[in-house]
Design a protein that fits this description.
Blueprint (H helix, E strand, L loop, with lengths): L2 H31 L2 H10 L5 H41 L2 H16 L6 H35 L2 H26 L1 H17 L5 H26 L1
Length: 228
Amino acid sequence: MDASSKRSAAFEEIWKKPVIRIGSITVLAGGLLAFLPSVYLWLRFGVLPPLPMALKAWAMIAAAFGAFYIVEPVSYYAILGLSGTYMSFLSGNISNLRLPCASMAQEVTEVETGTPEAEIVATLGIAGSIITNLVGVTLAAFVGAALIRIFPPAVADAFKVYTVPAIFGAVFGQFSLRYPKVAVFGIGIPLLLLGVLKGIPVWLVIPASVFGSIGIARIFYNWERQRS
C-alpha cells in the first residue's frame, strides 16, 4: 500500500467513520425532537390532525421543496464535506451562512476543494458560524426587531427583500472568480430555461441548473486533464 492509500485509509478510519456514526445519531435525534411540540399538543390538549390532512399538508410541502431534498445535499457536498453536511443540515441556514463560511475558510487557508484538508477546514468554519450565529440570533431577537421598527420603510423593506439575494450574489461572485467558465453556465442555464421555456416549474429549473452545472464542470475537468 502506497503512502496515498495509507493516508486515505487513515482518514477513513479516524474521521469518516466517527463522523457518520455521530452525524447519523444527531440528525435523526433532531428530526425526532422536531415532533415534540406536536406530541405535547396532542398529549396535553388532545389536538391531533386527521392523517389524510397531515399527508396532504406534507404533499404540498414536498411539491414545493421536494427538489431540494436531492439538490442541496449533492450540490453543497463538495464544499461542506461529510461532517459539514451533517452539521449544516442540522443547524440550518445552509446556503446563506454555512456554505459561505465554509468556502471562505477554505479560501483563506488556500486548501484544495474536495480534499481531506478542505473538509476539516470547512468543519471548523461551520462550527464557528454556528456559535456566532447562536449569539447573533439571540441578540437579533432582542435588538433586531426594535431596529427594524425605527428604520424608514424603504430601508426596512430593503433588508427584508434584498438580504438573501445579496448573500447569494456574493457567493456566486466568489465562486465565479475561481471557476469563471463554469459560472457562465451556472447563471446561463437557469436564465435560458426561464427565458425560453416560460412557465417551467421552479422545482425543475433548480435540479436542471445544479446538475447541468456539475456536468459542465466535469467536462471542463476532463478536458483540462487530457490537455495536461
